[in-house]
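re the bet — no i am not wrong, look at it urself. input seq straight from the record:
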Amino acid sequence: MIYAFVQRLLRDQSGIGFVELALVAPLLALMFLGMIDMSKVIATRVDLEQAAQRTTDLALGKRPPNGNTAYLVAEAVAASGVPSSDVTVTLTCECNGVVQNKFTDMCNGGQVTRRFATVSIKKQVSTGFNWRIVGAMFTGGSATYTPITVIGDSVVRLQ
């Protein structure tokens, strides 16, 4: 009687698709959540890159004569919507590839002068899912949620 029951169970194929779906559904859900979260991160990165490029375009059009970066920081804040503490504008001067102390330094005769404006903007992006907890499930630890820091930057040569 038990042997016949086991044989019947082995031949019965009804419900196999449902069982397979039950095994694959969590993975599909994680992939879907991952696509949503990554699209938020990528969209933010593109926005920050465009804001940084807009700021370096301003630096190229209105060159900083005395090394003052206040108007470039204000432009980056206006373009990106982040606070000024998350914006970094660096002006550098190189003489024959050697970085000088000040942007306004002059190179000696015969040296190649290069001046650069670098804009970096960072922003915290909140994802809809705590991805660290997935890794913690396999290591046995615990994971607290931390947002992802996204950085957009741009460099332009002024001279």
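see?? The chain has a mean pLDDT of 85. told u. also The first strand starts at residue 87 and ends at 95. so pay up
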